[in-house]
Amino acid sequence: MNEYFMESEREAARLHLKDDVGEAEKQIKAAGLLSVADNAVILDVGTGVGVCSQAAVNVFGSSKKTGCVISLDRSFTRVIFSKSQIRTTVKRRIRRSRLCADAFMLPVKDNSVDFIVCRFLLEYLPDYMAVIRECKRVLKPGGILSIGDLDCNCLIHYPISELMEKQLLQISSVLTRLKLWDPFMGRKLYAAFCRAGMVNNTVTVCAHHVFAGRFPDNHLQNWRYKLEAVKRLAVQHRLTLGFSIEKFAASFIALLKNNQRFSYTPLIIVVGRKKHD
Ligand SMILES: C[S@@+](CC[C@H](N)C(=O)[O-])C[C@H]1O[C@@H](n2cnc3c(N)ncnc32)[C@H](O)[C@@H]1O
After folding, report:
1. Cis omega (within 30 of 0) on the bond before 159?
2. Which domains does the chain have, with CATH numbers?
3. Alpha carbon of 206 to ligand 1 centroid (Å)
4. What pTM value is reported for the model?
5. Cβ contacts of 44 within 8 Å, gap of 6 or more
6. Facing residues of 149 across strands?
7. Which of 77, 132, 181, 213 is the most exposed place for a label (fewest CB within 10 A)?
8. Which pLDDT score, from 0 to 100, does residue 226 have?
9. Whether the Cβ atoms of residue 146 and residue 132 lie closer than 8 Å to each other
10. What pLDDT shows up at residue 152?
11. Closest Cα to atom 4, ligand 1: which residue?
């Protein structure tokens, strides 16, 4: 079982800060959710606070078809939080279900799911191929798998001092070495789909974050949470980075507050189908 390094009692609040159901709706539509037949089973793996589940309810609900959206996360707190978040306007046609379970062992029958969405989970997993294979196992033949992860996650900011860029890369490579996080997960998805034997694989690259000028308050708060997670980790794993995380965090927040700074993060979404026998 993997350690989720962002885990804290405030993780639901952090995820809620940056949720954008409208963007998730566009992504899910582009992945072909509307092409799925009536009476569909839709699974959101690593749902967090249920952003993709809400998007699936909205998009599939608008098609007048019936179906079931299952929100799955290993965190009981967030599964409950996602319940309170989901609006129920199309409740009668779209059933909702929640599962507190591990993505490595989905408590779902083989060949039973029509559409799987999995966003911002694989970057936290030591063995992402195992989860892709598990998703493939539960998909029906012809079923759709849509996985989205960031590339160069948290790393692209300009102007940034040489020292701060070096320290940022150092933190990110320590997390990668500990197998807690992969900032380059996005670029690995297409090859992973091919290796798993998924077919008709397509790739979309879009901007997840584009921040030119004033950094929005909710995203600033999100960064504070991320820096707190790194501080906790440094204590837990007794990391010796050779510099003070406290000082780094303060300088990094100052960098984000510089209105002449430009930051962006590419999101890579790969969509494929399970082959018919
Ligand atoms: C960044 S959040 C996902 C956000 C959400 N998918 C979205 O698009 O907004 C990552 C989630 O994955 C969950 N998670 C981490 N490891 C997991 C595992 N092995 N099985 C299931 N969920 C896991 C965490 O509890 C967390 O809620």
Report:
1. yes
2. 11-273 (3.40.50.150)
3. 21
4. 0.96
5. 50, 52, 53, 56, 69, 70, 71, 72, 116, 117, 118
6. 268
7. 213
8. 95
9. no
10. 97
11. 48
Lowest mean pLDDT among 2-6, 15-19, 22-26, 138-142: 15-19
277 by Cβ neighbours in 10 Å (0-12 / 13-18 / 19+) ranks as exposed
Instruction: Copy the structure tokens of residue 213.
Output: 């000028």
102: how many CB neighbours lie within 10 A of its CB?
Answer: 15
61 close to ligand 1 (CB < 6 Angstrom): no
Look at phi and psi of residue 136 and say left if phi exceeds 0, alpha if psi is from -120 to 50, else beta: alpha
Handedness of CA 105, 19, 126, 189 (dihedral sign): positive
pLDDT of 90 over the 60 cut: no
Q: Is 213 exposed, middle or buried (0-12, 13-18, 19+ CB in 10 A)?
A: exposed
- Ligand 1 in contact with 116 (CB < 6 A)? no
Q: Write out pLDDT tens, residues 102-145.
A: 999 999 999 999 999 999 999 999 999 999 999 999 999 999 99
Tell me, in angstroms, the distance from the centre of ligand 1 to residue 140's CA: 23
